[in-house]
Design goal:
alpha/beta; 5 strands; Transcription Regulator spoIIAA; two-stranded parallel sheet; 4 helices; 97 residues; three-stranded parallel sheet; 45% helix
């Protein structure tokens, strides 16, 4: 990721179906304008659909020649990713993986 045009956002505490609409709109607006950094430190619960949406957002950012990364992933976020066997997929998005 380049130092310019980094957009930073906090993931909500509960990343579920109710939060997905707002997240989708936020990410859609950001994906084509620069790199995205998502702070996952507040996540206490995450739905499988939300993880799939994050993967899709990361791939879409890459298709626009930008990067998306997740920094400070909470234990709950990391456990959900591992429980679903998505560690390899998310390794490209999670800082320090």
């Amino acid at each position: 990721m380049g130092a310019q045009n980094i957009q930073t956002f906090d993931l909500p505490g509960v990343v579920d179906v109710d939060a997905m609409d707002a997240m989708r709109e936020l990410l859609l607006g950001a994906i084509e304008h620069g790199d995205i950094e998502l702070d996952g430190s507040r996540v206490s619960r995450v739905a499988t659909n939300a993880l799939l949406m994050l993967v899709s957002a990361g791939q879409s950012a890459g298709a626009s020649n930008f990067a998306m990364r997740i920094v400070n992933p909470s234990e709950a976020l990391t456990e959900a990713i591992d429980r679903l066997g998505m560690g390899d997929i998310f390794s490209q998005f999670i800082e320090g993986s």
